[in-house]
Write a structure and sequence with these properties.
Elements: E1 12-16, H1 28-42, E2 46-53, E3 65-69, H2 75-85, E4 96-99, H3 106-111, E5 117-121, H4 125-133, H5 135-149, E6 154-157, H6 160-170, E7 175-176, E8 197-204, H7 211-219, E9 224-229, H8 233-238, E10 242-245, H9 252-258, E11 259-264, H10 273-280, E12 284-288, E13 302-305, H11 310-319, H12 324-332, H13 336-351
Parallel strand pairs: 1-2, 1-4, 2-3, 4-5, 5-6, 6-7, 8-9, 8-11, 9-10, 11-12, 12-13
Helix pairs in contact: 1-13, 4-5, 10-12
Length: 352
């Protein structure tokens, strides 16, 4: 991972994230990392990913990639493999390490203390760790997170919710830089009959994402298509929701363009990437007013909603769809060139 020597205005960024870039499924962190790396490379900077490499995944990586061999996707397996490999990696103090989960920075803080480090909070990981693994594992994770936050050079979060969390728990003020959207990749295209629907949901099929509200839409006569996977897929099928399963990320423009409106009845979100992708395709959004959704969703681009009025709000928006050009203009505010410029400022600050 030694970069070629270049100009003084050239950055050398090593991204660390437990993703396999060869996988084509949609994913917030995967989309973020790959899109950011492509923009950095386009600007003449060096950018390489230290990620996970799964034996069943074939094909080429869209970005420079150093893979750690893992049997199956697991943030814990990636962390332990990373901890074993970190001491012997070819790194230099001219590089900047950018981590996309806080715990992944831990071994590099120990073995590479002089290399500048940035960590991005894509949400509130501690919340998910505690829910999935219980209070004890959550407590241990907190210790890792506290150690990392106090020792990295800069902390970035993608939402105001993340900023509040970091201030409340660690007293550290992060830089808030929202996620970006690829405006060339996501644009209006010809609808596909298979994906035509009144309301589209994209994401994990789990309770926190509001699956019962999708069922309520179907009960009121609204045609709902769900794209993704998760433990509540059978529930959705039983309730009459059309389940499309996983669709390659490169094909999602056709899905968004075939829907009248995207719905996101989540009980928690940071800054949801799917909202920006839908708006970039000219499709309006009805979403619960959680996280930073209100930065992009309003009466011009759809409707901010809540559990009590969700079905009514979706019906109202379906009767008078938002302007596709207004939706796209809103997404343009978060294009990757604009987001990358803000992250460049962070990189130069920690490098100096």
């Amino acid at each position: 991972m030694i970069f070629k020597k270049g100009r003084k205005d050239r950055l050398e960024i090593v991204h660390v994230s437990g993703i396999d870039p060869r996988m084509t499924k949609p994913g917030g962190t995967r989309t973020y990392v790959i899109s950011l790396m492509k923009e950095l490379i386009f600007r003449g900077h060096g950018s390489v990913l230290v990620g996970a490499k799964y034996p069943r995944v074939k094909g080429e990586s869209p970005v420079p990639f150093f893979g750690l061999n893992l049997k199956r996707p697991s943030s814990y397996s990636f962390f332990w493999k990373l901890s074993l490999e970190a001491p012997t990696m070819e790194l230099t103090t001219n590089q900047i390490l950018h981590f996309h989960r806080p715990e992944d920075a831990f071994p590099f803080i120990l073995f590479w203390p002089r290399i500048p480090k940035v960590v991005t909070f894509h949400g509130i990981p501690q919340k998910g760790v505690r829910q999935r693994n219980g209070a004890l594992v959550g407590f241990l994770y907190n210790l890792f997170e506290d150690y990392v936050v106090s020792r990295v050079d800069e902390v970035v979060c993608v939402s105001q919710e993340g900023k509040k969390y970091l201030l409340r728990h660690y007293g550290r003020t992060p830089v808030v830089i929202p996620v970006g959207v690829d405006m060339e990749k996501f644009a209006r295209v010809e609808p596909v009959d298979e994906y035509r629907c009144d309301a589209l949901f994209v994401g994990r099929f789990e309770k926190e994402k509001g699956m019962k509200h999708l069922a309520s839409l179907v009960e009121s006569g609204i045609d709902v298509l769900a794209v993704g996977s998760g433990p509540m897929d059978r529930y959705l099928l039983k309730k009459g929701v059309r389940v499309a399963g996983k669709i390659p990320h490169d094909d999602m423009s056709r899905v968004y363009s075939s829907a009248k409106v995207l719905v996101l009845p989540s009980s928690y979100e940071g800054f949801p990437t799917v909202v920006l992708e839908a708006l970039a395709c000219g499709t309006g959004v009805v979403a619960f007013d959680v996280g930073d959704t209100n930065m992009v969703v309003d009466d011009d681009t759809g409707r901010l909603s809540c559990a009590d009025t969700f079905v009514i709000d979706v019906r109202d928006v379906l009767e008078e769809l938002p302007s596709g050009s207004i939706c796209r203009d809103r997404a343009m505010m978060f294009s990757w060139p604009k987001i990358c410029s803000k992250l460049e400022d962070v990189y130069w600050r920690v490098k100096c």
